Amino acid sequence: MKRDNIPEVENTAECGRGNRLIDAVSPQEKPVVRKKVKGQKFIKTQVTPVEPCDEKAMLEVQHLTKSFGELKVLDDISTKIYPGEKVSIIGPSGSGKSTFLRCLNVLEDPTDGYVFFDGKNLSNLKVDINVERRRMGMVFQQFNLFNNMNVLRNITLVPVYVGLKELAKTKRHNFFIKIANIFKKKQDKKPLIPIEKTKKSIKEEAEANAMRLLQRIGLSDKAKAYPSTLSGGQRQRIAIVRALAMNPEVMLFDEPTSALDPEMVGEVLSLIKELADEGMTMVIVTHEMGFAREVSTRVLFMADGKITEEGTPKELFGNPKTERLKDFFSKVL
Ligand SMILES: Nc1ncnc2c1ncn2[C@@H]1O[C@H](COP(=O)(O)OP(=O)(O)O)[C@@H](O)[C@H]1O
Ligand SMILES: [Mg+2]
Pick from 6, 1, 87, 110: which is nearest to 51 by CA? Predict the structure, then answer.
């Protein structure tokens, strides 16, 4: 893994939000357009010293703070998530679990502190957040599928969009090389970038991949069905598969089973467990204590915007240290 030095830290005074819906991981989330506000200098929001990020960590959070107005939701959180780890986040409602997850893939901009993904500082404006985000699969409580598109299109939408965008970029690049080559001697002419894909092949490849994923979860016969005709469990498994279609390096789950009827929780959890067994790095906010205990390699307990206790499931469930966690377990176990 190539590591740059820690880039200089900048943050905008304001973060505009774009309107190209499908550039984001989820259809209900718009991509962040991070731009310098005209006439304003970058504001350095950093008050804590920057520490070098850990080369081995996939995700690293340093002194992450998030406030909504007066309300401080995350309070100076630091943690690292290494490749292959399955981290469960548990804690009472309102403790900032969703906000923490949303800060990891910058659906929320941190008020202070840093998030590093694969060594890249996501607060740095030079990092294209929409590109980095595609390497993180996000699954929400409410599935967030497009109801006006069939299952296949829901899954292929972003891969096709990204594929076409890359194709257009290469073609544009070649166009400029061609123009520049006109004025060059034969031996100085630059070679064009070979283009193997066509619009058709991009679409076909994405569809073949989507069908393979649907087969895996036993829903290939639902490819042409619309989300509204499916059960909650089926919809959530499709939402997971849609995230997988981008070949993410880490999966972030925000209470993936809490909107489901009890009889459908099992099918979704077993798919997540399968991914965990295959070695997928994952962060999962969950109320399913049995699942957290069985599947995770580490459990974080969040309360009042802080990670107040963490450890292996055995340590945390077997021997909770703080009163806060004991009290939480007494309510949920
Ligand atoms: N966009 C927002 N604007 C204002 N307050 C918010 C926003 N998102 C979350 N909050 C508040 O932040 C706190 C933590 O929320 P959340 O991260 O959703 O907690 P959890 O997922 O642990 O239940 C809550 O008090 C919630 O009302
Ligand atoms: Mg939540």
Answer: 6
Nearest Cα residue to atom 6 of ligand 1: 68
How does pLDDT run across 294-316, given as a tens digit for each residue? 999 999 999 999 999 999 999 99
Distance in angstroms (rounded) separating the CA atoms of residues 58 and 61: 10
Pocket test for ligand 1, best of 30, 99, 142 (most atoms within 8 A of CB): 99
- Per-residue pLDDT, 126: 80
**In contact, 85 and 281? CB cutoff 8 Å:** yes
Task: Report the separation in Å between the CA atom of 175 and the middle of ligand 2, taken as the mean of its atom positions.
Answer: 48
| Residue range 267-273: mean pLDDT, rounded | 97
Ligand 2 centroid vs 253 CA: distance in angstroms? 10
Three-class DSSP category at 32: strand
59-106 per-position pLDDT tens digit = 999 999 999 999 999 999 999 999 999 999 999 999 999 999 999 998
Distance CA 324, CA 18 (A): 40
Q: How far is CA 156 from CA 81, 210, 235, 243, 274, in A?
A: 29, 7, 15, 10, 22
Q: What is the CA radius of gyration of the chain?
A: 22
pLDDT (mean) for 279-294: 97
Check if 70 has its Cβ closer than 6 Å to any atom of ligand 1. Answer: no
Amino acid at 303: A
Which of 28, 70, 71, 101 to probe ligand 1 with, by most ligand atoms within 8 A of CB?
71
DSSP 42: P
For the segment 239-256, what is each residue's pLDDT rounded down to a tens digit? 999 999 999 999 999 999
Cα–Cα distance measured from residue 79 to residue 201, given in angstroms and rounded to the nearest whole number: 42
